[in-house]
Amino acid sequence: MLVDFSQASLWLTLACITFNPTAWNVAARREHHTRWLTNLCGGARQGCYAIATAIFSMGIIRDALYNQALNDQPTASLLDNALVRLVAGLLFISGMTFVATSTYALGITGTFLGDYFGILMSERVTGFPFNVLENPMYVGSTMSFLGTALWHAKPAGLLITAYVWLVYWVALQFEGPFTAMIYANASKAKTAGEKQPALISKKKKKL
């Protein structure tokens, strides 16, 4: 048996993987529409730091559950060799590099949904790793899951990794268009604000 579906740790891990992006997307969208976290925390930046802390903490819990799930699963002899471990190490290091460098490039508010709080980036980040991948945080995280699964030679880890990417892909279908909408609205508001003084000036000239 390659995957032991009777293990509760497997299902807990899958549940956590599903819950995390769903929870932060729901919370952030509600924040955008109602400013509930901004009001609760006494400011947009404080609210963003609060959700960043929650996301980071849930990520630690998810990773702990994942490692426990791998420990409870059968090992595949086909994956238990030096070459696979080399590939696993490269995947994990590359994945964590993408995650760390994208966080550095975006900053805390850029990484953890600051745009939903009205904290917008002044310009699009185009340097590494965004010049290599469009979504380096999600890709890097998936690579780390895959690397860990291969390192421990656990087929169940491969299944979990595939589910991680599916959940991330679904999340991106919601996050991408919504974020684009936020910036489009901000751009329209800025353009309208720039035109307003010009209209007032023209009226004054007529008077």
Percentage of residues in strands: under 5%
Give the SSE string.
HHHHHH
What average pLDDT do the residues reach? 92
Q: Could you give the distance between the termini?
A: 86 Å
How would you portray this structure in words?
It is a single chain. With 207 residues, the chain is mainly α. The protein has one domain (8-206). Helices cover 77% and strands 0% of the residues. It has helices spanning 8-34, 36-41, 44-71, 82-111, 136-151, 155-206. The longest helix has 52 residues, at 155-206. The chain is elongated. The model has no long low-confidence stretch (mean pLDDT 92).
Overview features:
mainly alpha, Phopholipid_MeTrfase, 207 residues, lipid metabolism, phospholipid metabolism, EC 2.1.1.71
List the helices and strands and how they pair.
Layout: H1 8-34, H2 36-41, H3 44-71, H4 82-111, H5 136-151, H6 155-206
Quick description:
This protein is an all-alpha fold and 207 residues long.
